[in-house]
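Hey,

Quick one before I head out. I ran the complex with zinc ion overnight. Inputs first:
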Amino acid sequence: MLKRRDTLPEGFLEARAGELAAMLGGPTLIELPGERAAPLFVSILMHGNEDVGLGAIQRVLRAYDGRSLPRALMLMVGNVSAAAQGVRRLDHQPDFNRVWPGTLDHVGTVEAAMMAEIHERVLARGAFAAIDLHNNTGRNPFYSVICEHRPEVLELAARFARRAVLFRGVPGTQTASFAGHIPAMTAECGKPGSPAHEEAAARFVADVLESETLGGDREGGALDLYHTLGVVRVREDVSLSFAGEAADLSLAPDIDRLNFVETAAGEAFGRASHPMPLTMIDEAGRDVAEEFFAVEQGELRLARPVTPAMLTGDPQIVRQDCLGYLMERLAPA
Ligand SMILES: [Zn+2]
């Protein structure tokens, strides 16, 4: 399933995400040489509707047009068939960011075998760091997701954004799969379709590509670091509306206004006719929804002060992924 190349295909630097399936023929690992041998691993379009990484890497590579890269680059171009449809994943596909080594739900799939092959190659080449570039569907500031509290990882995150989420959950994500091996992070780059977001992501990738080392004390201590309390989902048997139509759960369409905002107990999320329409799974796999939410007189409210993240008002994303996460701020490192 995985295609491999050591050159960019003709037209790659100008292509739109929806054109890559025809250009590449499937998910593709492109290995380009550079002055330092230990490669930077960058993955883009792991979710087909999140194209910030393509715009970013096109900018980085255009800037080096005709010159050698300062460091070798391994570029994974992910779910191109979903990108051709403008969706996160196709209905018959697993999520490309849930099938990396450590996955529990997708063992034995062709996608898991493909990511295992890439994972092995990245480690065999002694990669410098791994960066997975994503967009959000809801409004969020730029932030990193990291799985380790180590100086190299904190510095990598700090080079991208002031905010970082330390998260050990969700087996099968790329960033989790590299924990304990190489500095790895997910860069969450705001909503798709913004040249400014692509430029910011490009500056970050170029900065890491040009770096000789990570893990000095540069900036890592200045991070606003959050810890994930759990992932929030709408129960499958609960009907959902964002537009105020009749449903078991009717959420405010601008719920993403709460992302990265310290939010008090009592904040209303919406109207519910179900006694507990949400699940919230913590890092130990327990459902803790009753600790964090309460339904009182038909209002779904927060039961504790928290900081939400990645809340989305897109019902398809809620069903394919989650409603969002609740977090707490960690004391400075
Ligand atoms: Zn994503």
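The chain is about 25% helix and 25% strand.

Talk tomorrow,
K.
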